[in-house]
Specification:
heterodimer, A: alpha/beta, FAD/NAD(P)-binding domain, D-Amino Acid Oxidase, Chain A, domain 2, 3 domains, 8-stranded mixed beta sheet, 7-stranded mixed beta sheet, 17 strands, B: alpha/beta, Rossmann fold, two-stranded antiparallel sheet, 7 helices, 13 strands, binds flavin-adenine dinucleotide
Chain lengths: 432, 272
């Protein structure tokens, strides 16, 4: 049997890999995608939030056919202290109109549909197959070795999009094992509830959804957060914290999640629901400092495999899709020039630098570290906010002027105003 | 030797939920898979083609997404795949299903002979095990159900010998071709497809046939041709079991057991 040679091999059919395959196949390249799951998304059983802007650039008017769960009309943030919380949110039913802004998906369904679009564009998708290593020759990546019999595949360029554990990049020595302060551990559950109950509880109409993000005591002061997202007939409930913090605390992630679920505010939202699935997954949060080289002779690395996640907002899927799309375009450019060396593939890095992917990652470069070294943001400040608002809303005959004085006194007991000023200036500087 | 394999795409029942109110399967969102028994049916047909030469054709009747299941069969080594799909087939029971499938095989036989038809023992969703026998009867083929081993196929003499499971043992049967087999899982182990096979399967065209392709009688298709009425479907409640251990020496245990039994109505009127 003659060796199989393609223009492009994509490893992994997650958002990054599929975006790359779709873009390259649409441009007329001969593309094969290798995915280890039974089908794309099989390993991603959970729900999450996706962003329409990115999807539209890949598939115009995707919302007409894609398996979306709910269109997000309200995003709310809770700063939790004890049984109480300070919350801020924005709600706008307009977000439910076409085109939607953000929406929830169940990855098992969505990834499968997304991969079918790449297939329709001409890419071959080979499932239940693990890419074991890169095949290299004269300093250039020329293919991959899979776990199938006669399983070697060859291509001009290999796009590595195998997610956070990126066996391929690690094995090729592009980066060492992630350190505990470069990844967060997230645990998630899908909790089934009838559609009507969800719509009642979250005050939404059919097809509309909300995202709730929780900070503060839910993570025992560790850098991280918890969330509740609405799907059509279920809720995605989860919690993620920096692995290094978790190890230090000696806590088990499922215990943290259970504690979160039993918080009175959260328990009321989940009441009567049945846990359908659960899983633990890493989120790369090392940012630009932990990035492997993004390209080399004959390869490019996209998405989680390249640490492309905004740790602050947990937006990973859109960076994955954007980087995948750009890698697909650069593969086409390389094909046109018939040059798959760093000379052309460096264009991948250049285009990423012009896009929000590397710009956002540079902007937030130090934020997580800053929060990590200043843990009072997630422990002391929620407490102070709780105290202040509790005092403010408590009707006890004191004048408002008196109340503000009391609040300020108690704040000052905990931390001087000068230090508070410095904390927030520091945070601001680190996000600029 | 030309073998036809009938395969069905089914919901992955390990992931199916039952609606507690209506007691029906909730199929929405459940991934579809190739009926596990049918994978063994394809494997057996391919193994015999490897020994005797010839060709393996896989057929399914189902919605367009059933192509996925056919592609999987191609990767296992089948040569040709036909998807039989038409609105007219919707709502078929086992009678209408076997009519459509038998008619398709007859259509194929107009251009090339068919020596063997392989089916799974049963579909894991419908679970009736009636489609295979229904097809055999309509085609006038010998039927060999619950086959665990094919001992021999002799194309010269036009004979086949198989082992099939019956209630109290294993039956060795020898009969004339053409024949239809329904197979058990233990007949073989499905091999992991090679990369070249996967790529061939990914590239191959799947033929799409409709009721007009096979010239089916619309009155015998789909809902119209399905006399089955499902009056109720329910999940049987688990049997009420109790376990009690008796202590003491054998005599004491026997006495306690006899005492216990005498109070149960299983032996009412016989004991004491
Ligand atoms: C309780 C019950 C309720 C039902 N309710 C409905 C209903 O509400 N609506 C409705 O439309 N139908 C209904 N059906 C019938 C339908 O769903 C059957 O699944 C269908 O007729 C095939 O029968 P089976 O699944 O039992 O297959 P089996 O006879 O168990 O299958 C045996 C083998 O036959 C072959 N085979 C079976 N089906 C196909 C196929 N489509 N294409 C190719 N090969 C095949 C495969 O080799 C399979 O391994 C019901 C059946 C039952 C028993
Ligand atoms: C709990 C949690 C919640 C999240 N919530 C959100 C959210 O709400 N919004 C958001 O934008 N992002 C969210 N993210 C981040 C987001 O899931 C990721 O950033 C995104 O999935 C990255 O896409 P990817 O294609 O790079 O990797 P993945 O989605 O991980 O895809 C990698 C694919 O490669 C396959 N694969 C891996 N190794 C191999 C191999 N050796 N051979 C073959 N195939 C292989 C895998 O099976 C997988 O299908 C969340 C992450 C977690 C863990």
């Amino acid at each position: 049997m003659a060796e199989e040679k393609f223009d492009v091999i994509v490893v992994g059919a997650g958002p990054a890999g599929t975006a790359a395959a779709l873009t390259a196949a649409k441009a007329g390249l001969d593309v094969v995608v290798v995915e280890r799951g039974d089908y794309p998304g099989a390993k991603n059983v959970m729900g999450g939030v996706l962003y329409a802007d990115m999807m539209s650039s890949l598939i115009p008017e995707f919302w007409k056919n894609a398996p979306l769960e709910r269109r997000i009309i309200e995003q709310r943030y809770f700063l939790v202290h004890g049984e109480s919380a300070v919350s801020i949110g924005y709600r706008n039913p307009q977000y439910a109109n076409d085109p939607p802004n953000n929406f929830t998906v169940l990855r098992a369904k969505f990834d499968k549909w997304f991969a079918e679009q790449a297939e329709a564009a001409g890419a071959f998708i080979i499932t239940e197959t693990v890419a074991r290593e890169l095949i290299r020759e004269n300093g250039k990546v020329i293919g991959i070795r899979t776990d199938r019999e006669e399983g070697d595949l060859y291509a001009d360029v290999v796009i590595i999009a195998d997610g956070v554990n990126s066996l391929l990049a690690k094995q090729a020595g592009f980066h060492p094992e992630w350190k505990p302060d470069q990844v967060a551990l997230a645990v998630k559950e899908i909790i089934a509830l009838p559609k009507e109950v969800i719509e009642d509880r979250f005050n939404i109409e059919s097809g509309q959804g909300v995202t709730y993000e929780f900070f503060g005591q839910v993570t025992n002061g560790m850098v991280g957060n918890a969330f509740v997202y609405t799907n059509n007939e279920s809720l995605s409930v989860g919690l993620g914290v920096m692995l290094a913090d978790l190890v230090k605390s000696g806590l088990h992630p499922y215990d943290l999640l259970d504690e979160f679920k039993s918080h009175p505010m959260v328990a009321a939202l989940l009441k009567g629901g049945e846990t359908k699935e659960y899983m633990a997954h890493l989120i790369p949060e090392g940012g630009v400092d932990a990035m492997p080289p993004l390209y080399g002779n004959g390869f490019m690395i996209c998405g989680d495999a390249a640490q492309m996640v905004n740790a602050l907002t947990r937006e990973g899927s859109n960076m994955a899709m954007e980087s995948g799309r750009i890698a697909g375009e650069v593969a086409k450019l390389a094909k046109d020039r018939n040059d798959f060396s760093v000379n052309t593939l460096s264009e991948y890095q250049r285009r990423l630098e012009k896009s929000f992917v590397l710009q956002d990652l540079h902007q937030f470069r130090n934020t997580t570290k800053y929060l990590e070294h200043n843990q009072h943001f997630l422990s002391l400040y929620p407490e102070l906010a709780d105290m202040a608002l509790h005092e403010f809303f408590l009707v006890d005959g004191a004048s408002k002027r008196e109340k503000i004085r009391r609040i300020m006194d108690r704040v000052k007991q905990k931390r001087s105003l000068w230090r508070i000023g410095r904390d927030f200036y520091g945070l601001y500087k680190n996000m600029k | 030797m030309h073998a036809v394999v009938l395969i069905k795409q089914v919901p992955d029942t390990t992931e199916v939920r039952i609606d507690p109110k209506t007691n029906t399967m909730i199929r929405a969102g459940v991934p579809s898979i190739l009926n596990p028994y049918d994978a063994n049916a394809v494997e057996e047909a391919v193994r015999w083609r490897e020994r005797l030469g010839g060709k393996v054709t896989v057929i399914t009747m189902g919605p367009p997404q059933a192509k996925e299941a056919l592609r999987k069969c191609l990767s296992f080594g089948a040569d040709r795949a036909i998807l039989l799909t038409d609105r007219a087939f919707a709502g078929a029971d086992t009678l209408a299903t076997s009519y459509a499938l038998a008619t398709t095989i007859q259509k194929i036989m107009e251009t090339e002979p068919v020596d063997l038809v392989f089916c799974g023992r049963q579909a894991i969703d419908g679970d009736t095990g009636q489609v295979g026998p229904g097809v055999a009867r309509r085609l006038g083929f010998e039927q060999l159900t619950y086959v665990i081993k094919v001992d021999e196929i002799d194309p010269e003499k036009g004979e086949i010998q198989v082992r099939r499971v019956v209630e109290d043992g294993i039956e060795v049967v020898r009969t004339k071709l053409p024949a239809l087999l329904t197979v058990e899982k233990e007949i073989n182990e499905v091999r992991y497809a090679t990369m070249p096979d996967l790529l061939r399967a990914a590239r191959q065209e799947i033929e799409v046939w409709t009721k007009d392709t096979i010239g089916a009688d619309p009155n015998q298709c789909g809902l119209k041709g399905s006399p089955t009425v499902v009056s109720k479907s329910f999940v049987p409640s688990p049997p009420d079991r109790h376990l009690q251990l008796f202590e003491g020496d054998v005599a004491a245990q026997a006495a306690a057991l006899a005492e216990k039994l005498s109070h149960l109505d299983v032996f009412a009127g016989r004991l004491g």
